[in-house]
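Example 3.2
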Amino acid sequence: MHTLKRNINLPMLTLYGLGTILGAGIYVLVGKVAVTAGIYAPISFLIAAALAGLSGYSYAALSACFPKSAGEAVYIEHAFSLKWLSTTVGWMVILTGVVSAATISNGFVGYLQVFVDISDFWGITLLLISMTGLAIWGVNESVAVTAITTVMGIVGLVIILAVSMPAFMTIPERLPELMPPILDGGIWYGILLGAFLAFYAFIGFEDMVNMAEEVKQPERTLPKAIIAAIVISSLFYYFIALAAILQLPMDTLTNSKAPMTDIMREHSEQGAWFVSLISLAAVVNGALVQIIMGARVLYGMGKQGMAPIWLAAIHPSRKTPYIATLILGSVVWVLATSFPLATLAKITSFIIIVVFLMVNAALIRLLRAKPVNSALKARAWVPYLGAVMCAGFLVIQGIQVFSGGQAITH
C-alpha cells in the first residue's frame, strides 16, 4: 500500500502554518473588526490571539501524541471512543475547509479583476483547476508555493509596518485614547464582538496537524511549528491593527475593503499597487492551503475507516491523495460558482469554534487518563481555559444573533 512521503521540515511547516493564518484575512479584516471595536481593534486581536494560543496549545499537545492526518477526528476518537462523534468532527473540519476555500475563491476574482478583465466564473474556474492540479502534483511543490506566497505576504506586511513607523512614534502621546475604560461594559462588549471576528483571522493553524504523515519527526516538529506560527501571526496582527487605527480615519477604516492598500496609499500610490498584488498572492495561498487541508482530512478519514476507503488512495508516483483532492476541488468549485455563501459562512464560523471546544475537551479527557496516555504531556489548566473561552465566544455569537445582529463570518 502506498504511503504519504515525509518531506516537510520545521521551517517549511511553520511557513505553511503562517500561510494558513496570514491568508486573505489580514488584508481585509482590520476594518471589519474596527466596526464594533473602534479604536480598540488591536485589543480585540490580542483577545483573539489568546483564544488561538490556548486552543493551539491543545492541538500541539495532541499532535505530538497522535501525529495522524484527520487530526481532530483522531483526537476525538482516542478521547471519547465514539465513532459517530469523531466522524462528525471530521466532516465538520472538511466543511469549514470547503466553504472557506469557496469564499476565498470568490474573493480572488475581485483582486484579479484589478489587473485582468475576466468573468467571475472563469476566474474561479482557472484558480481552482490550477490549485487542485498543483495539490495533486506534489506536496513539496504545493508547500513550496505556499511558502513563496507566505513570504510575499510577510514582506508586504513588513513594508506596511516600516512605512508606519512615524505613526508608531505617536503612541506615547495617544496612549490615553488607545486604552479602553475598565468599567465601561458597552465598550468591552464591542471589543469582544471585534475579538470574535478577529479570531477567524487566526483560523488555519489547525490545518497543520493534517500534514502530520508528511512531516519529518512529527512528534517534535508539529508542536514547535504550531506555537511558532501562532506567536508570529499574533505579533503581525496586533501591530498591523495598530498601524491601521493610528493612520486611517475611523470612517475610512470601517468602510475599507482593502485597509492595507489604503494605508499604503497614504504614503505611495505605487506601494498601494504592490500591496494589491501581494493581496492577490495571499488569496491564492489561502485557496491552495484549504484544498490541501481538506484533502488530507478526507484521506485520513478514509484510512481510519470513518469514510470510504477509496478516499485514502495515494497516487503511485506523486504520493498524494489524488482522489480526495479531486473530489474536494470539485465541491469547492460547485459552491464557489453556483451558490450564495453568506449563510454557509455564518454556519461555518460557528462550527469551527465548536471543533476547538471539542479538541480542548479531548485533551482534558486524555489528561485525566494519564496511565493510559503516558506519552501525552501538557499543562492541565490550559485546555480548561481554552474550553471556557470557546464556550464564551459561542455565547457572544448567540447573544448577537438573538439580539438582532448578524453572525460574524471569517
